[in-house]
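Team,

Forwarding the record for the chain on the shared tracking sheet. I've put the sequence and predicted structure together so nobody has to dig through attachments.
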Amino acid sequence: MLRSMYSGIGGMKNFQVKLDVIGNNIANVNTYGFKKGRTIFKDLVSQQISGASGASGGKGGVNPKQVGLGSQLSAIDTVHTQGSLQTTGRALDLAISGDGFFVLANVDNNNNVTNPVYTRAGNFYLDENGDIVNADGLYLIGQVGKINIPTNAKSFSIGADGTVSYVDASGNLVTAGQIRLAKFNNNEGLEKVGQNLYRPTTNSGAAVNTSPGQNGAGILVPGTLEMSNVDLAEEFTEMIVAQRGFQANTRIITTSDEILQELVNLKR
Protein backbone atom coordinates (compact mmCIF):
# COMPACT_ATOMS: atom_id res chain seq x y z
CA MET A 1 0.00 0.00 0.00
CA LEU A 2 1.06 3.59 -0.54
CA ARG A 3 2.73 5.37 2.36
CA SER A 4 0.78 8.52 1.51
CA MET A 5 -2.53 6.83 2.36
CA TYR A 6 -1.43 6.08 5.91
CA SER A 7 0.03 9.58 6.26
CA GLY A 8 -3.35 10.98 5.25
CA ILE A 9 -5.17 8.84 7.81
CA GLY A 10 -2.81 10.00 10.56
CA GLY A 11 -3.27 13.62 9.54
CA MET A 12 -7.07 13.29 9.63
CA LYS A 13 -6.95 11.87 13.16
CA ASN A 14 -4.71 14.69 14.33
CA PHE A 15 -6.93 17.41 12.88
CA GLN A 16 -9.96 15.74 14.47
CA VAL A 17 -8.26 16.15 17.86
CA LYS A 18 -7.41 19.76 17.01
CA LEU A 19 -11.05 20.45 16.18
CA ASP A 20 -12.09 18.81 19.46
CA VAL A 21 -9.81 21.16 21.40
CA ILE A 22 -11.02 24.20 19.45
CA GLY A 23 -14.64 23.21 20.06
CA ASN A 24 -14.01 22.94 23.79
CA ASN A 25 -12.35 26.37 23.80
CA ILE A 26 -15.27 27.98 22.01
CA ALA A 27 -17.79 26.25 24.28
CA ASN A 28 -16.02 27.77 27.31
CA VAL A 29 -15.57 31.28 25.94
CA ASN A 30 -17.69 32.66 28.79
CA THR A 31 -16.56 30.25 31.52
CA TYR A 32 -15.00 32.16 34.43
CA GLY A 33 -11.33 31.32 34.95
CA PHE A 34 -11.17 28.94 31.98
CA LYS A 35 -7.76 28.43 30.35
CA LYS A 36 -7.74 27.52 26.67
CA GLY A 37 -6.11 24.46 25.15
CA ARG A 38 -3.64 24.32 22.26
CA THR A 39 -2.81 21.35 20.03
CA ILE A 40 0.79 20.67 18.95
CA PHE A 41 1.81 18.20 16.24
CA LYS A 42 5.13 16.55 15.43
CA ASP A 43 6.33 14.41 12.54
CA LEU A 44 6.57 10.65 12.71
CA VAL A 45 9.72 8.68 12.00
CA SER A 46 11.06 8.99 8.46
CA GLN A 47 11.86 5.92 6.38
CA GLN A 48 15.53 5.87 5.36
CA ILE A 49 16.04 5.32 1.63
CA SER A 50 19.77 5.94 1.74
CA GLY A 51 22.10 7.43 4.30
CA ALA A 52 24.37 10.42 4.12
CA SER A 53 28.01 10.16 3.07
CA GLY A 54 30.91 12.51 3.50
CA ALA A 55 33.22 13.88 0.86
CA SER A 56 35.85 11.38 -0.27
CA GLY A 57 37.71 10.18 -3.37
CA GLY A 58 37.35 13.48 -5.15
CA LYS A 59 33.55 13.55 -4.67
CA GLY A 60 31.49 15.80 -2.46
CA GLY A 61 29.16 14.66 0.31
CA VAL A 62 25.68 13.22 -0.28
CA ASN A 63 22.62 14.08 1.80
CA PRO A 64 20.36 11.36 3.24
CA LYS A 65 17.20 10.36 1.37
CA GLN A 66 14.20 9.97 3.65
CA VAL A 67 10.43 9.69 3.25
CA GLY A 68 8.28 10.98 6.10
CA LEU A 69 5.52 8.72 7.39
CA GLY A 70 3.06 11.35 8.58
CA SER A 71 2.42 13.26 11.77
CA GLN A 72 1.36 12.53 15.33
CA LEU A 73 0.03 14.41 18.33
CA SER A 74 2.84 15.95 20.34
CA ALA A 75 1.02 17.79 23.13
CA ILE A 76 -2.24 19.41 24.17
CA ASP A 77 -1.17 22.45 26.17
CA THR A 78 -3.20 24.41 28.68
CA VAL A 79 -2.34 28.08 28.15
CA HIS A 80 -2.33 29.81 31.55
CA THR A 81 -2.35 33.41 30.42
CA GLN A 82 -4.28 36.03 32.38
CA GLY A 83 -7.91 36.49 31.36
CA SER A 84 -9.54 39.90 31.31
CA LEU A 85 -11.26 41.09 34.49
CA GLN A 86 -14.99 41.81 34.42
CA THR A 87 -16.36 44.16 37.05
CA THR A 88 -19.42 42.84 38.87
CA GLY A 89 -19.48 44.92 42.07
CA ARG A 90 -20.41 41.82 44.07
CA ALA A 91 -18.45 41.44 47.30
CA LEU A 92 -17.91 37.68 46.95
CA ASP A 93 -16.70 37.85 43.35
CA LEU A 94 -12.90 37.67 43.40
CA ALA A 95 -10.31 37.67 40.65
CA ILE A 96 -6.60 36.97 40.92
CA SER A 97 -4.42 39.52 39.14
CA GLY A 98 -1.22 37.57 38.63
CA ASP A 99 -0.13 34.04 39.47
CA GLY A 100 -1.86 31.66 41.86
CA PHE A 101 -5.02 29.63 42.41
CA PHE A 102 -7.81 29.64 44.97
CA VAL A 103 -7.77 26.56 47.22
CA LEU A 104 -11.05 24.64 47.58
CA ALA A 105 -11.59 21.55 49.70
CA ASN A 106 -13.85 19.53 51.93
CA VAL A 107 -13.56 20.38 55.64
CA ASP A 108 -14.66 18.04 58.46
CA ASN A 109 -16.03 18.98 61.88
CA ASN A 110 -12.49 19.25 63.28
CA ASN A 111 -11.57 21.81 60.58
CA ASN A 112 -9.32 19.29 58.81
CA VAL A 113 -8.90 20.07 55.12
CA THR A 114 -9.19 17.08 52.77
CA ASN A 115 -8.99 16.59 49.00
CA PRO A 116 -7.89 20.12 48.04
CA VAL A 117 -8.45 21.26 44.46
CA TYR A 118 -7.56 24.52 42.78
CA THR A 119 -9.35 27.06 40.61
CA ARG A 120 -9.12 30.51 39.03
CA ALA A 121 -12.90 30.96 39.08
CA GLY A 122 -13.68 33.36 41.92
CA ASN A 123 -17.48 33.34 42.09
CA PHE A 124 -18.08 32.48 45.76
CA TYR A 125 -21.14 32.34 48.00
CA LEU A 126 -22.17 32.09 51.66
CA ASP A 127 -23.89 28.94 52.86
CA GLU A 128 -26.46 28.76 55.67
CA ASN A 129 -23.70 28.71 58.31
CA GLY A 130 -21.91 31.75 56.89
CA ASP A 131 -19.00 29.75 55.40
CA ILE A 132 -17.58 30.91 52.05
CA VAL A 133 -18.10 28.20 49.42
CA ASN A 134 -18.07 27.84 45.64
CA ALA A 135 -21.09 26.94 43.50
CA ASP A 136 -20.58 23.21 44.20
CA GLY A 137 -20.34 23.59 47.99
CA LEU A 138 -16.55 23.25 48.31
CA TYR A 139 -15.12 25.49 51.04
CA LEU A 140 -12.81 28.36 50.17
CA ILE A 141 -9.72 27.67 52.25
CA GLY A 142 -7.95 30.36 54.24
CA GLN A 143 -4.65 30.25 56.08
CA VAL A 144 -6.22 28.33 58.98
CA GLY A 145 -9.05 26.43 57.30
CA LYS A 146 -12.44 27.54 56.06
CA ILE A 147 -13.54 31.16 56.44
CA ASN A 148 -16.75 31.96 58.29
CA ILE A 149 -18.71 35.20 58.36
CA PRO A 150 -21.34 35.09 61.12
CA THR A 151 -24.90 35.24 59.86
CA ASN A 152 -25.61 38.23 62.14
CA ALA A 153 -22.74 40.30 60.71
CA LYS A 154 -23.84 43.73 59.55
CA SER A 155 -21.42 43.84 56.59
CA PHE A 156 -18.19 42.32 55.35
CA SER A 157 -15.36 43.12 52.95
CA ILE A 158 -12.39 41.39 51.33
CA GLY A 159 -9.07 43.17 50.81
CA ALA A 160 -6.53 42.82 48.02
CA ASP A 161 -4.33 40.81 50.41
CA GLY A 162 -7.14 38.32 50.98
CA THR A 163 -8.10 39.54 54.45
CA VAL A 164 -11.79 38.94 55.13
CA SER A 165 -13.29 41.36 57.66
CA TYR A 166 -16.81 41.90 58.95
CA VAL A 167 -18.68 44.21 61.28
CA ASP A 168 -20.31 42.23 64.08
CA ALA A 169 -23.63 42.91 65.77
CA SER A 170 -21.92 45.28 68.24
CA GLY A 171 -20.36 47.34 65.46
CA ASN A 172 -16.83 46.02 65.99
CA LEU A 173 -14.54 45.25 63.03
CA VAL A 174 -13.46 41.62 63.20
CA THR A 175 -11.05 39.68 60.95
CA ALA A 176 -12.58 36.38 59.84
CA GLY A 177 -9.44 35.08 58.17
CA GLN A 178 -7.17 35.46 55.17
CA ILE A 179 -7.71 33.73 51.85
CA ARG A 180 -4.97 31.31 50.86
CA LEU A 181 -3.51 31.10 47.36
CA ALA A 182 -1.55 28.20 45.92
CA LYS A 183 1.34 28.38 43.46
CA PHE A 184 2.90 25.62 41.36
CA ASN A 185 6.30 25.30 39.74
CA ASN A 186 4.62 24.30 36.47
CA ASN A 187 1.04 25.50 35.99
CA GLU A 188 0.77 23.72 32.64
CA GLY A 189 1.35 20.41 34.42
CA LEU A 190 -1.95 20.72 36.30
CA GLU A 191 -4.74 18.32 35.39
CA LYS A 192 -8.21 19.63 34.57
CA VAL A 193 -10.88 17.71 36.47
CA GLY A 194 -13.96 19.65 35.33
CA GLN A 195 -16.10 22.20 37.19
CA ASN A 196 -13.36 24.84 36.73
CA LEU A 197 -11.05 22.79 38.98
CA TYR A 198 -7.46 21.59 38.71
CA ARG A 199 -5.46 19.07 40.69
CA PRO A 200 -1.68 18.70 40.85
CA THR A 201 0.28 16.02 39.02
CA THR A 202 3.82 14.76 39.30
CA ASN A 203 4.85 17.29 36.63
CA SER A 204 3.14 20.34 38.15
CA GLY A 205 4.91 20.05 41.48
CA ALA A 206 3.23 20.27 44.85
CA ALA A 207 1.16 23.28 45.82
CA VAL A 208 3.03 26.05 47.62
CA ASN A 209 0.59 27.87 49.89
CA THR A 210 0.99 31.60 50.30
CA SER A 211 -0.93 34.82 50.81
CA PRO A 212 -2.09 37.11 47.99
CA GLY A 213 0.70 39.47 47.00
CA GLN A 214 3.39 37.36 48.69
CA ASN A 215 6.10 35.09 47.22
CA GLY A 216 5.22 35.97 43.64
CA ALA A 217 1.49 35.32 44.00
CA GLY A 218 -1.00 37.75 42.49
CA ILE A 219 -3.28 40.07 44.43
CA LEU A 220 -7.03 39.78 44.73
CA VAL A 221 -9.35 42.18 42.94
CA PRO A 222 -12.67 42.14 44.85
CA GLY A 223 -15.84 42.81 42.91
CA THR A 224 -14.47 41.35 39.67
CA LEU A 225 -14.26 37.98 37.94
CA GLU A 226 -11.57 36.65 35.63
CA MET A 227 -13.00 35.80 32.24
CA SER A 228 -11.88 33.00 29.94
CA ASN A 229 -8.65 33.66 28.04
CA VAL A 230 -10.20 32.27 24.84
CA ASP A 231 -9.88 34.63 21.85
CA LEU A 232 -12.76 33.89 19.49
CA ALA A 233 -11.03 35.44 16.47
CA GLU A 234 -8.02 33.18 17.04
CA GLU A 235 -10.18 30.11 17.58
CA PHE A 236 -12.19 30.66 14.39
CA THR A 237 -8.97 31.13 12.43
CA GLU A 238 -7.54 27.92 13.87
CA MET A 239 -10.82 26.17 13.09
CA ILE A 240 -10.54 27.16 9.42
CA VAL A 241 -6.91 25.97 9.35
CA ALA A 242 -7.91 22.64 10.93
CA GLN A 243 -10.81 22.21 8.52
CA ARG A 244 -8.61 22.85 5.50
CA GLY A 245 -5.94 20.55 6.89
CA PHE A 246 -8.51 17.80 7.34
CA GLN A 247 -9.79 18.32 3.78
CA ALA A 248 -6.25 18.21 2.38
CA ASN A 249 -5.58 14.91 4.11
CA THR A 250 -8.80 13.42 2.75
CA ARG A 251 -7.62 14.51 -0.68
CA ILE A 252 -4.36 12.61 -0.12
CA ILE A 253 -6.36 9.45 0.60
CA THR A 254 -8.57 10.00 -2.46
CA THR A 255 -5.60 10.52 -4.74
CA SER A 256 -3.80 7.47 -3.33
CA ASP A 257 -6.93 5.41 -3.88
CA GLU A 258 -7.11 6.56 -7.51
CA ILE A 259 -3.49 5.48 -8.06
CA LEU A 260 -4.22 2.05 -6.56
CA GLN A 261 -7.27 1.78 -8.79
CA GLU A 262 -5.08 2.46 -11.82
CA LEU A 263 -2.72 -0.31 -10.71
CA VAL A 264 -5.61 -2.73 -10.36
CA ASN A 265 -6.86 -1.78 -13.83
CA LEU A 266 -3.50 -2.57 -15.44
CA LYS A 267 -4.43 -6.25 -15.60
CA ARG A 268 -7.62 -5.58 -17.56
